[in-house]
Design brief:
Strand 8 and strand 9 form a beta hairpin. The termini are far apart. Helix content is 53%, strand content 14%. Strands 1, 2, 3, 5 and 6 form a five-stranded antiparallel beta sheet that branches. Strands 4, 7, 8, 9 and 10 form a five-stranded mixed beta sheet that branches. The protein folds into two domains: 173 residues, no CATH class; 367 residues, no CATH class. Pfam families: EMP70.
Amino acid sequence: MYFYKEEVVLWMNTVGPYHNRQETYKYFSLPFCVGTKKTISHYHETLGEALQGVELEFSGLDIKFKDEVMQTTYCEIELDKAKRDAFVYAIKNHYWYQMYIDDLPIWGIVGEADENGEDHYLWTYKKLEIGFNGNRIVDVNLTSEGKVKLVPNTRIAMSYSVKWKKSDVKFEDRFDKYLDPSFFQHRIHWFSIFNSFMMVIFLVGLVSMILMRTLRKDYARYSKEEEMDDMDRDLGDEYGWKQVHGDVFRPSSHPMIFSSLIGSGCQIFSVSFIVIIVAMIEDLYTERGSMLSTAIFVYAATSPVNGYFGGSLYAKQGGRRWIKQMFIGAFLIPAMVCGTAFFINFIAMYYHASRAIPFGTMVAVCCICLFVILPLNLVGTILGRNLSGQPNFPCRVNAVPRPIPEKKWFMEPAVIVCLGGILPFGSIFIEMYFIFTSFWAYKIYYVYGFMMLVLVILCIVTVCVTIVCTYFLLNAEDYRWQWTSFLSAASTAVYVYMYSFYYYFFKTKMYGLFQTSFYFGYMAVFSSSLGIMCGAVGYVGTSAFVRKIYTNVKID
């Protein structure tokens, strides 16, 4: 809210190549000159902005609310050879810059080359048109004019003008012009949701058929009912999963890592769910870095979920070294994310890019891990161990493990794991395209209702697929279902990462070491997190299924 002739700040953010969205530099890293106005009310940076490389610097332009400025020269560039070369490089690589007025982003291009690419021109005149509704700014447009040829050893005058116009846009709706409904609400988007929904109906039908068929036969056989038809009687004793009742609840191999992964996956699911709901209620895209800040806050706050599920599972599997398990569970995801960020940070520092994370921000993130995530994880672990850490399995575990018989190649856990991720990936890959485009290109993602639907569909498909996979595995008298159910769902991550390669080479024009390492580094983090989440969801669903079918088996 502004008063008449109150100072309106034009912040210069970053400049960088159009095709590499994440490769950004400080605006004044190019030899632009600063306006004459020096004093400025201070700007406070949030954690999300620091991590996303927002580098707001004062432009020095004197702009006052509703006070029109005719074309005015605000500074001159002494163009020596070095400065000219810097501008020519920027123009060749399609550099453009971003500015902010009252949190509204404005983009402008640095310059352009002529058709044969020999002469290069700089845009020197920023023509700002600001729309106001009452005493609020609701719209900003920038027109770049004043094309000047870059010739060494000349002076280039930079100028600006400000025009104020009344606008009917409501303050709440001022970000609507940045959204792209024709892209996000395209018929294909609706069709993909419908397609995934049909897949869900088919899979739920398949799982319920398996459940009803097996349970019906079990009840029939164990109740010694005579009404069974011939075909059922023939099939009756073939069911192999009953043979492994004494081994099916045997602890998984490497229980510490396994329970840590399950705990982390449950936490990622709860973070995704809560952040999507917050994004549906609040328009997080209207504030710089607010999505990332929200995600970090929610991740820290949901640490007890990680501790509870990881700790209780580890206790059920008879684990003794619960403190070590708690540390692994607490730092598994932060270590993966921070390790990748640390590696990419070296490249960003080498490039002098604005994405280089400041030391203070790194310390802040480490403090969150040590003083928020770890204690909350401890609380969750203690609750999990005490409330649901008793191994209350429906079947007794045999002292000696049963030998696993030979089976057909397609029943091997490795094959089941590879095939398990195809259907969950199929249910989300269209949504992946929209999410990738909003992150790696210049679209603002705002259809969080779609994202919530896709998350629910993904979970249902994942659970159904892992139940079917586990059913076939147990039928082949192989009781190693815990890791198989986790990995068959987690293999979705491999398919998402493979899709990211296709997206990089065919859907973007990115280039250079920095942008490529940034893309594949963070895509690996995204895919791994998605895989751990799917694996945990698959395991939790399958665990309930296994417990259910063995509860209904009367063992002599």
